[in-house]
Amino acid sequence: MPILDQIANIHPEMTAWRHDFHTHPEVGFEEQRTSAIVAEKLASWGYEVHRNVGKTGVVGRLKVGSSGRTIGLRCDMDALPMQEATQLPYRSKTENRMHACGHDGHTASLLGAAQYLAETKNFDGTVNLIFQPAEEGVGGARAMLADGLFERFPCDAVFGYHNTPRLAVGKFSIRPGPMMAGGAFFDIRIEGKGSHGAHPELGIDPVLAACHVATAMQSIVSRNVPAVDGAVISITRIEGGDAYNVIPNEAHLRGTARWFKPEALEIIRTNMKRIATGVATGFGCQAEVDFRVIFAPLVNTDAETAFIADVAAEIAGEANVNRNRDLIMASEDFSFMLEKVPGAYINIGNGDSAPVHNPAYDYNDKLLPYAATLYARLVEKRLAAA
Ligand SMILES: [Zn+2]
Ligand SMILES: [Zn+2]
Description:
With 386 residues, the protein is an alpha/beta fold. 35% of the residues lie in helices and 25% in strands.
């Protein structure tokens, strides 16, 4: 079964919704306009609508028939705090806000599936549509879980997708087990003693200590994490001081770590703390490490991976579904939902676009019917009427 006819018919509507979201991007937990539009559309199609699940999150519930079976379909709604560089007619109208990860398209495609499912009702059970806020590192999935997402809206399984630049439209890729890395952010504060730049002997230089900490931290992945396990530590910001001739009181290192196995996370966390405090102490400074896990590794369950790949193969043909794709070092907070409920996360090609998080990126509207059909068919197959 390729693209569903009724979904092909609403391709222009889904495209218009997507462009509207693109023009009015909202960052994590500020998705007031977006979530209001989502809630209004869901209600108009007969969904039971629950707003403010995880602050700006929305859940739409539709029960058909008598079966106790349930399914969750998830998308994300937030934009990024960056300036758009495209000249698209529907480009962002808000300074320093851009849908550069395609969550505008994720939202529009789940709305398309929502409309189709409400009109056709070709299933027996309960569908929970999860419109998640704040995926971009600010905790939207965890906020929804903290608001009792799966207690209030039980799901036997939960599914989601992300668009993937440089994969052709109509192609899917997934793998069972770990697929995307866990991610942490860290801040290291190194305290010394300020002095005149001409008289370092009168102070304790935290900038020099920070430089040595940064270098020493490169040994964690190369010398402590087993090479086959795959991990990354990137120091992405170094700050200290304001003047050419002043040694400051403190310096800061910030960055991100990525891993797949829980053992690797513990090695990174423990060794980062030991190196930062030990090296800083060696220079007469003191270091404090704040290490925060932002994303769990994303782990697809085997049965649900096979299921969503089978649905993708129905739509696009087996030749267009890569069931054993490479690991991805980027992270995704749908991982926290997959820690609670069986499920799977699949990539769908966005064609020859700029990479996500790039100012020239745009979600490919040709993808909308593939994604909406995937969402719809997951429901029709999983909750097939007897
Ligand atoms: Zn993103
Ligand atoms: Zn994204």
